[in-house]
Amino acid sequence: MTAIAAATAALADAAFGGDPQGGSSRFACRPRFSPLSPCRSAPPRGPPVPPPGLPGAYEAAADALVGLAADALGMGRFGVSARLLERARAIATPEGSRQAIRLSWVSAELAMVQGHGATAVEHARRGVDAAAGHPSTRHAVKSDVVLAAALCSAGDIDAAREVADAALLATEKSGLIPLRWALACVLSDIGSATHDAAQISEIRDLSADTVRRRGGVWAGA
């Protein structure tokens, strides 16, 4: 269970931004979403219908819904998060789009915190497939981080270790420090096939220090 807890905490801090607090991460906007409370008993509604002729309107709507779902998840409002994700899925966005990738991430994380490991892996693999056609290296690596965590939650530790080790190498090459920290947190619990425990601890601590030196603030710190 410690691996699952570490994976979930790591994902929370490395979620959607370039620093640990991460822009649209699930802690970043916590005070703003008290208006979500009425959603607890509200009946399901259809997807939002943006004004016609507005370029990118559907993508923007999907982005907003996924961001709200991530924040609801961070507040423990799993039902609200699930309903927002369903509305996001109802919006037609391209398979390899950023919106589709982020939808897979948050869907996987929701499944993880609810104890649905197999479902989390399904969502995470969809994210990996979608990210394969996306130009962002960060989205590809983050999708592997989510998959490693999902595999942990499903109890497939060997597969999680393989994915996490490969992604850790990718973060070294690309300089994705917050994701490097997240992976080191996961590997510190499940063990690495390519680094010993002391090396993983050093990577984790150095990554955290680098983020602080660059002005990042850990969520909850």
UniProtKB/TrEMBL annotation:
Region named Disordered: 35-54
Family matches, as InterPro entries: TPR-like_helical_dom_sf
Pro residues composition-biased segments: 44-54
Designated name of the protein: ATP-dependent transcriptional regulator
